[in-house]
């Protein structure tokens, strides 16, 4: 199982993908443009499927950006 930490900003998401030992597998920024977010989650979901893994997304709590949550439930 992997853990995806997401810190939301107005123009970007700062993400950190870690394994169960806490080792960073991926750290990057993703644009908040809808097509870029969908592309990122599609690629991540495909990569996890190829590795026979799943991920849990941990999203920063902030009431004005609920739009991200549906994208995290793959």
The poorly predicted ranges are none
The CATH homologous superfamily is termed: ATPase, nucleotide binding domain
Average pLDDT taken over every residue = 87
Structural class: alpha+beta
Estimated radius of gyration? 12 Å
Strand content: 35-45%
Could you give the order of strands across the largest sheet? 3-2-1-4
The number of E-state strands comes to 4
Helix content: 10-25%
Structurally, how many domains make up the residues? 1
What is the general shape? globular
CATH class: Alpha Beta
Order of helices and strands: EEEHE
What can be said about the biggest beta sheet? Answer: 4 strands, mixed
- How large is the count of helical segments? 1
CATH topology tier name: Nucleotidyltransferase, domain 5
What separation lies between the terminal Cα atoms?
Answer: 14 Å
Q: What is the CATH architecture annotation?
A: 2-Layer Sandwich
Describe this structure in words.
The protein is of the alpha+beta class. The protein has a single domain, classed as ATPase, nucleotide binding domain (Nucleotidyltransferase, domain 5). It has one helix and four strands; from the N terminus they run βββαβ. A four-stranded mixed β-sheet has the order 3-2-1-4, with helices on one face. The two termini are 14 Å apart. The mean pLDDT is 87.
């Amino acid at each position: 199982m992997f853990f995806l930490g997401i810190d939301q900003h107005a123009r970007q998401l700062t993400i950190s993908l870690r394994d169960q030992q806490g080792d960073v597998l991926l750290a990057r920024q993703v644009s908040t443009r809808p097509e870029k977010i969908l592309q990122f989650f599609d690629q991540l979901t495909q990569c996890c499927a190829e590795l026979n893994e799943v991920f849990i997304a941990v999203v920063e709590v902030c009431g004005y950006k609920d739009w991200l949550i549906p994208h995290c439930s793959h």
